[in-house]
Amino acid sequence: MRIKYILIPVATLGCGKTTVARILTSLYPKIWAQVQNDDIAIDKSVKGKGQKAKELVSRSLEKILGSEDYDVVIIDKNNHMNRERDQLLKDIDEYLSLASIKQSLKKIQVKIIILNFITFELNQNKQNKERLFQSTSKRVLDRKDNHQTIKVSISKPWKVNMIMRGFINRFEPIDQTDNRYDSIINLDSVSEKSSLENAKKVIRYFEMNYPNAINRVPTDDEILQVFNTCLTILNTPTDTYPSTATKVTKTTKIPNNDILAMIKRSSKRSKVEPDSKNKGQPLVRDLKSSKITKPS
């Protein structure tokens, strides 16, 4: 039975979710995919709410269900509020229900994994909230206009900071006991080079718990080189909403060639400290029956 994985970040602006996603998809370019929310523009001529969210889910799940290659997709969106996560799960379940009809001859399990970038209390701890703001705002301001939607030269630093404080103030932590998710990987959002360490932690977690989703464990040096390369990528809108789109703005793709060549030159495994395995058996989604069951 083939297992597919959906990775959902829970973060605010500047936590490094896109950088982590790029590191992982660069290290595993034919296994892991990334779909960015900022790359999907809204078609304002279409009435009804949630069109962008549904399109994001549709594109993301098509990556893993419509391909024999990809096993993992990262839905690159902040998902910083409970209602956003609830809607995302609803859209995923709706898509899987339709996919179960179209793929009745295939039996595929889908696991949903949370990448939890904020693991400390914010609402009751002003010091933590300020620490998060100072760390993430510095990253956003340092990248200047290198973002799909936030342009410092246009919005000005004070307005960017206002937007970021709004995200932090609205943030609602993930429920670590929520059984709608198969796993939750707790990450770091404030330390220096946290994206580098977070990518390593995700790889270690998959090595210990879901080794079928990675074909090898890269060395620390390899991950560092990929991290440095990903920091140089320009962020430009790459798409428009498909229903009435007449123009599509293209951008340079992530330069994987050099990264792939580097990875092929090394077959050594990195020395990592394994994370403890999850207690109990995770839930899985069976596309053939569209039911949530315990794995055998």
Automatic annotation (TrEMBL):
PROSITE patterns: PROKAR_LIPOPROTEIN (PS51257). It comes from the Eukaryota. GO terms for molecular function: ATP binding; RNA ligase (ATP) activity. This is Unnamed protein product. One of its GO terms (biological process) is tRNA splicing, via endonucleolytic cleavage and ligation. Gene3D superfamilies: P-loop containing nucleotide triphosphate hydrolases. Residues 6-188 form the tRNA ligase kinase domain.
